[in-house]
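I'm curious: can you give me some protein's one-letter sequence along with its backbone structure tokens because I've never seen that pairing?
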Amino acid sequence: MVYQEKPLRPDGLRTYSLRSRASKVSIKDFARISGPNDSLARFIDKLPNALAAKDFKEFVAILRKARARKKAIIFAMGAHVIKVGLSPVLIDLAKEGWMSAIALNGAGVIHDFEIAFCGRTSEEVDVQIKDGRFGMARETGELLNEAIRFGAENDLGLGEAVGRMIARSKFPRKNLSLLGTAYRLNIPVTVHVALGTDIIHFHPRLSGEALGKTSLQDFFLFSAMVRRLNNGGAFLNIGSAVMLPEVFLKAVSLIRNKGLCLENFSTAVFDFIRHYRPSENVVRRPLGKRGRGFYFVGHHEIMIPLLAAALKSK
């Protein structure tokens, strides 16, 4: 060798018995094989006690405990959750007492309305945008903006105003409306909009004043519901990458600035991939000194029915 530095050799290394070493994985944590007749509860119980499977079982237990203790469970959801056909699952959870409050973005309201009105939603944007037809469905713009105007005139939030309109309508599929069902069940629904992001914002019947007033009122109602997370509640952010994580963080700041206690609660994100704002604004930053944050990656159309079935299993 021409180098002055000589290689280190393993001679004289101190070793110990593998049996004495602390290890993170043990066969007692391994998955167990499911039988053809196993219930869902047994299937979940047989998942390995590792990583996301362990977190999932822990979070299900947290939700069960929160419901038993009558603590707040808030579902905050992006529009895609409704668009992929999960309304029946969500409505069933609401009826079974798993939802204390619901928070949506503006597009969530649009999909929910269109499902209630005609049983269909989600247009082909690639086709419609080419000739200016995207977002121009007449009834969506007219009826939602009328409901929002009514809400502003009567000091209702946006979620309550739309839920009221759907619940009192003769829409043929209103039984599949999350907002209409929540209104009938007296579950608060808040809607958090950004101006210019939704198709009803360029409709002739739009009132910016009414939109701003009703959505701002919903923010303060949302903050009141977030306050109820204290000491055992749970907040779920499902499919919102920006809007609802930002709103949640501001609500937490408002509550603590007013000197109100908000500690010892859990949060979870369900989404396709890991996003920055949900990771920071839901899972990490708001928790304070106590509480757990979880992040579950997977398709909504699989993960949310799985979560719902796990909660209902015995």
Remarks:
- Residues 55-312 form a domain with the Deoxyhypusine Synthase fold (CATH 3.40.910.10).
- Strands lie at 73-77, 101-105, 189-192, 234-238, 266-271, 293-297.
